[in-house]
Amino acid sequence: MATKTFTVEELSQFNGQNGQPAYVAIDGNVYDVTDVAAWQGGQHHGNVAGKNLSAAILKSPHGKGVLNKLPLVGQLTE
Hints:
Blueprint: E1 4-6, H1 8-12, E2 23-26, E3 29-32, E4 43-44, E5 47-48, H2 54-58, E6 72-76
Parallel strand pairs: 1-6
Antiparallel strand pairs: 2-3, 3-6, 4-5
């Protein structure tokens, strides 16, 4: 179980740029999308890693089902 917590500011550092891992937050959970081909360079269909994408995923064609395939790395704190 993931135990690391991220503030919004800390999460923003994981943007997939300059060798950084790419993390995204959905519903308070932080997922690692670094190794997902569609997230190369920290971007995916206009979305940018290092952010809370809880609203954006609701508009995506794949929905939240894709989250089950991603490594959970922590929790987002408000």
